[in-house]
Design brief:
six-stranded parallel β-sheet, 331 residues, Rossmann fold, globular, alpha/beta, Quinone Oxidoreductase, Chain A, domain 1
Length: 331
């Protein structure tokens, strides 16, 4: 089968595209003919040598997939050959990734694909959608009528937070770096969107949420906690999803006086049961057009190395080249 893979970590140049043996389906697994996959920042961290867990060799990167079941293991009763499915949480915790013509996935990580939703969209929302759902509802316990602030409303996770918060009746404030992206945030459902290059963010939030926001979702690798805590209401919740190596100053006094709480999480540590709950809501919102994928571009699987360069330039080097997800067409 054709696959993107690497045998040693390093720059995007270590990624090869060629033939590997097809994986064999175990009794609790499902073999999927992969149609679409998407690129996530964690893919580039692992490829660059982040030593989170031992990797198979050769290692196929990729967390997300959408495709069609080719074979089910003997113990799998709720899925069948020919069924369309999507998945995330692959390529992590020592599991092989998804950037290949066929992938073998434990049945517990697979979700049925709605008939009306294309594989391109399902692959694009997989990891980012589950991440947003876990953060908003399991961690921050978002309620209808509350105010949410999220940085980067056209980004992978940011666009999911905007739309999911609106789906449950929250007011959403977000940011973007150009007027075109600000306009896109409003199209996605944001009530207020600020251009962070031309607006004083603290003043902007204060104007539209004078009592503060109940949920502050931080996407920056180096959070500005003074700004965040200043923007938060009494008993607000802050969600962190990035910045493993970050060590920024933290305003302990204002934070605890307000009774705020801080929630960090990694989606790949969530159980299959928790991710199934998120996937069910994602399928419903996609079917009812309350959730739309934010896709920057679609490339062939053979362009995996280039896709990693683009993702890394946006995430690590802050060049803001992307406005949404990179999706790779496998077949």
């Amino acid at each position: 089968m054709k696959a993107a893979y690497f045998r040693t970590t390093g720059s995007p140049d270590v990624i090869e595209f060629g033939d590997l043996p097809e994986p064999v389906c175990g009794p609790d697994e499902v073999k999927v003919k992969v149609s679409m996959v998407s690129v996530n920042p964690i893919d580039t961290y692992i490829r660059n040598g982040a030593n989170y867990w031992p990797l198979p060799n050769p290692y196929i990167p990729g967390c997300d997939l959408a495709g069609e079941i080719m074979e089910v293991g003997a113990h799998v009763k709720h899925l069948s050959a020919g069924q369309r499915v999507w998945a995330s949480n692959q390529g992590l915790m020592g599991r092989q990734g998804t950037f290949s013509e066929f992938a073998v996935v434990e049945a517990k990580w697979l979700h049925p694909s709605p008939d009306s939703v294309e594989d391109t969209e399902l692959a694009a929302v997989a990891l980012v959608g589950i991440t947003a759902h876990l953060g908003l509802f399991k961690r921050a316990n978002l309620q209808s009528g509350e105010i949410v602030f999220v940085r980067g409303g056209t980004g992978g996770v940011g666009s999911m937070v905007v739309q999911m918060a609106k789906a449950v009746g929250a007011t959403v404030i977000t940011t973007a770096g150009t007027q075109a992206k600000v306009d896109r945030c409003i199209e996605l459902g944001a009530d207020f969107a600020f251009n962070y290059n031309t607006t004083n963010l603290a003043d902007g939030i204060r104007q539209v949420a004078p009592q503060g926001v109940q949920v502050f979702w931080e996407t920056l690798r180096e959070p500005d906690f003074d700004l965040a805590v200043g923007a938060m209401s009494e008993n607000a919740r802050m969600v962190l999803m990035a910045g493993r190596d970050a060590r920024p100053p933290f305003p302990v006094g204002p934070f605890y006086v307000k009774g705020c709480s801080l929630h960090g999480f990694a989606m790949f540590k969530a159980s299959a049961e928790q991710q199934l709950v998120a996937a069910a809501d994602i399928n419903h919102w996609l079917t009812t057009a309350q959730l739309r994928a934010q896709i920057d571009r679609i490339l062939p699987l053979s362009e995996t190395a280039n896709a990693h360069r683009l993702q890394e330039a946006s995430t690590i080097h802050k060049q803001s080249q992307l406005s949404g997800k990179i999706v790779l067409a496998v077949s």
